[in-house]
């Protein structure tokens, strides 16, 4: 770990603390003050926060928490997979006489897809329009870095930020410019209609640049993003032209995984709850822990039981996992449907929200349903089933 490297904030705070601790008797030593200074220096080191965001106090707090949200998403996915291998493989597959190889392969394939698309979304650039401002910070970083290519650090999960290479972003913007000039033409018959989104470049007052058509400024990331869809807290970054495909596939695979798990566990859950209600009667607050219909034990009880017995009760895992899978699968189904409808019409989520409420709105980027889908997902089905980065576009 490079926590205490010479000159780092933590190292400076630590040496100030040592000086204060061994100061001559009679000088004030405020333990609470030092606890605050040391912990905030430690937080700054392990969860880096951009200086411009830190100045605003509430944002400063939020920007430290932001990198933890994708971490929570990945942990939840891993917990579901672990619960399959520790519990449900035995109770819902082997004991029921189902094929263990088949079900384990499906679980591994689904989990692999979810995790890869999750990581792609976090660490792949959404497609950034580079401004002189961001180029300047990148050059400062490049002089420090060993490799000499200019990189901007943005978003990311925990303390590993994603690195965006400036040259690649510029190439992508040029490609996009070329794509717009060759493919997007305004029909003479629709010349008088309202065009949404507009096919021409716009000016961003915050970045002070002329940006490509369909780009939008993200207030959280503080950059302009090509075909900006939305800023996703679960990804801790923007969803745009370059990672939208991974985002939709991520939602699709989470939905598929949750439906699969819910179907596998539905009968067991039903049988368990029926028996439970027969024994205890129907109560809104369960008789054992009083935490609601499911009567789940609080985390500390769970931890105590685990330390005493070395395992967690199978029924408790089933009662926690099945409703979670069902809830997530329904949410993901709604999100997926919304995104598929947007793709079919050739809009991004933002463009759909800001569409003028008129009948004569024409989308110059709409290529027809089939081509709109091909533009997002590519033509090959194999790239959708296996998450390898073969579908590359600039
Ligand atoms: Zn901007
Ligand atoms: Zn953003």
UniProtKB/TrEMBL annotation:
Record-linked InterPro entries: Palmitoyltrfase_DHHC (IPR001594), PFA4/ZDH16/20/ERF2-like (IPR039859)
Record domain Palmitoyltransferase DHHC: where: 200-352
Enzyme Commission code(s) on record: 2.3.1.225
Membrane topology of this protein: Multi-pass membrane protein
Substrates-to-products reaction catalysed: L-cysteinyl-[protein] + hexadecanoyl-CoA = S-hexadecanoyl-L-cysteinyl-[protein] + CoA
Keyword check for Isomerase: no
Domain observations: The DHHC domain is required for palmitoyltransferase activity.
The protein's name in its UniProt record: Palmitoyltransferase
């Amino acid at each position: 770990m490079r926590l205490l490297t010479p000159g780092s904030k933590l190292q400076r705070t630590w040496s100030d603390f040592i000086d204060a601790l061994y100061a001559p008797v009679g000088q004030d030593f405020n333990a609470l003050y030092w606890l605050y200074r040391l912990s905030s220096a430690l937080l700054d080191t392990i969860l880096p926060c951009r200086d411009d965001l830190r100045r605003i106090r509430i944002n400063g707090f939020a920007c430290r928490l932001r990198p933890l949200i994708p971490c929570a998403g990945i942990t939840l996915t891993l917990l579901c997979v672990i619960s399959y291998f520790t519990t449900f493989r035995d109770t819902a597959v082997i004991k029921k006489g189902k094929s263990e190889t088949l079900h384990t392969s499906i679980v591994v394939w689904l989990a692999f897809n979810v995790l890869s698309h999750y990581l792609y979304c976090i660490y792949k650039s959404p497609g950034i329009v580079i401004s002189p401002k961001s180029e300047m910070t990148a050059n400062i970083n490049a002089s420090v870095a060993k490799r000499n290519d200019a990189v901007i650090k943005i978003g990311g999960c925990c303390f590993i930020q994603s690195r965006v290479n400036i040259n690649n972003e510029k190439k992508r913007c040029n490609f996009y410019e070329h794509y717009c000039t060759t493919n997007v033409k305004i029909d003479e018959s629709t010349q008088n209609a309202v065009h949404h989104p507009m096919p021409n470049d716009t000016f961003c007052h915050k970045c002070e640049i002329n940006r490509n058509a369909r780009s939008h400024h993200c207030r959280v990331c503080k950059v302009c993003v090509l075909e900006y869809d939305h800023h996703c807290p679960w990804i801790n970054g923007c969803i745009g032209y370059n990672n939208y495909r991974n985002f939709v596939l991520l939602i699709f695979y989470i939905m598929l995984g949750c439906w699969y798990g819910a179907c596998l566990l539905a009968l067991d859950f039903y049988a368990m709850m029926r028996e439970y209600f027969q024994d205890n009667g129907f109560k809104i607050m369960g008789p054992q822990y009083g935490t609601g219909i499911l009567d789940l034990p609080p985390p500390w009880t769970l931890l105590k039981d685990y330390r005493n017995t070395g395992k967690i009760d199978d029924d408790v895992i089933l009662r926690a996992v099945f409703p979670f899978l069902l809830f997530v699968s329904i949410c993901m189904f709604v999100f997926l449907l919304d995104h598929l409808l947007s793709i079919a019409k050739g809009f991004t989520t933002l463009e759909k929200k800001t569409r003028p409420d008129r009948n004569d709105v024409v989308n110059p980027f709409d290529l027809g349903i089939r081509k709109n889908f091909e533009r997002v997902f590519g033509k090959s089905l194999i790239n959708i089933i296996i998450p390898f980065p073969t579908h590359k576009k600039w």
